[in-house]
Amino acid sequence: MKIKDVIAVLEGFAPLQYQESYDNAGLLFGDASREVTNVLLTLDATEAVMDEAIAKNCNLVIAHHPIVFGGLKKITGRNYVERVAIKAIKHDIAVYAAHTNLDNVRYGVSERMAARIGLQDCRVLDPKHGILRKLYTFVPWKDVEMVRAALFEAGAGHIGNYSECSFTGEGTGTFKGNEQSDPYVGKPGERHFEPETKLEVIFPVYLEQQIVKAMLASHPYEEVAYDVISLENAYQQVGSGLVGVLPEPLPELDFLRMVKTRFNTGCVRYTPLRGKPVHQVAVCGGAGSFLLKKAIAAGADAYISADFKYHEFFDAENQLVIADVGHFESEQFTVELFYHILTEKFRNFAPLKSTIRTNPVNYL
Questions:
Q1: What is the gyration radius of the CA atoms in the chain, in angstroms?
Q2: Are 43 and 358 in contact (CB under 8 A)?
Q3: Where does the sequence pass through the membrane (predicted)?
Q4: Residues of CATH 3.40.1390.30 domain(s) within the chain?
């Protein structure tokens, strides 16, 4: 198995196209064509983690946080980022990061948080816009099922909990081939009228190349007429955070104690209590203050996330309870997520979970 095979599985689950514009997810160091010796899974690719990878003969480290976020102009070992880069290159260790793309997929980081406290009926808190496309093509009626099946096989036609979604309409197409043409129906130099079916399917943007390729390969025409258009619809399966409901409402302090235990955190910072039970809960891994208004608008009674600044706590305005569990604590289950993704695909391969606790924050 090559490093690129592992990457293909990760990006099949969390496509790089879903990362935020400021992010740097993907392969940061290393040659993707090399054979895998072993894989080490971690939240952060620190120096200690790289030493662990060396000791355990792992030539691929998969982390949630990109060790290289901005540009590196010099690599002299003056800080931990440069030292990690030197170790990775010196020992031929590839480092891969799945960051906001893993945050933004439906069953990603926030799903692991939601599962930790038993949230049910979850939905994406802030669905992304502009990442859906629609394909229109025109097919002779007797060939439409062949083309439709190829498009579904390539990944088109998924809407929420439904697959194989398409729309067809009947009409008549016209064309006239020149002397170099070899038409599927009709004759060169003559206008031809053909009963055709207009076939429409929807798909996420990262699949566009393979969707079009599948259509062209299955379509009977020599020259295929088709359109790909961008949609502004919110994609309900991709976006930031989740919101769901607890199996039973809990008093606020009982809820906060449960969160502290389930997230194994030394501290939960929270806003003033409202004297109301907690039933609907929003979650977001990492720094989630940017979603506070979305959580309020969704009707959440509480919002679990991290890295709220002092003045941002005021923004709750007694409309919900913010529960700041800490950045590491909100994302600590990502290693289990990596493990699940890889072992579901590679049944006879067991990646290693780092034993290094990379949280730089300590509690007294």
A1: 25
A2: yes
A3: none
A4: 3-98+333-353, 105-126+239-325
Cα distance between residue 164 and residue 124, in whole Å: 22
Per CATH, the architecture of 105-126+239-325 is what?
A: 3-Layer(aba) Sandwich (3.40)
Q: Cβ neighbours of residue 174 under 8 Å, at least 6 residues apart?
A: 191, 192, 193, 194
Non-local CB neighbours of 85 within 8 Å, separated by 6+ positions:
29, 67, 68, 72, 75
Predicted TM-score (pTM) of the model is: 0.91
| Parts of the chain belonging to CATH 3.30.70.120 | 131-231
Tokens 């990596």: give the residue: 338
Percent residues over pLDDT 90 in the chain: 96
**Residue 303 pLDDT grade (very low, low, confident, very high; cuts 50, 70, 90):** very high
- Indicate the DSSP class of residue 207: G
177 token code pair: 């081939």
Q: Is the pLDDT of residue 320 over 90?
A: yes
Options 3.40.640.10, 3.40.50.300, 2.40.50.140, 3.30.70.120; CATH for 131-231 is 3.30.70.120
Task: Tell me which fold the domain 3-98+333-353 belongs to.
Answer: 3.40.1390
For 330-360, how does the pLDDT look when each residue is reduced to its tens digit (9 = 90+)?
A: 999 999 999 999 999 998 889 999 999 999 9
pLDDT tens-digit series, residues 95-149: 999 999 999 999 999 999 999 999 999 999 999 999 999 999 999 999 999 999 9
Amino acid occupying residue 206: Y
CB-facing half-sphere around the CA of 146: CA atoms within 13 A = 12
Kindly state the helix (H) or strand (E) to which residue 285 belongs, with its residue range. Answer: strand 278-287
Mean pLDDT over 173-190 rounds to 92
Sheet holding 167-175, edge to edge: 167-175, 192-204, 132-140, 226-231
Q: Dig out the tokens for 266 from the structure.
A: 């030394």
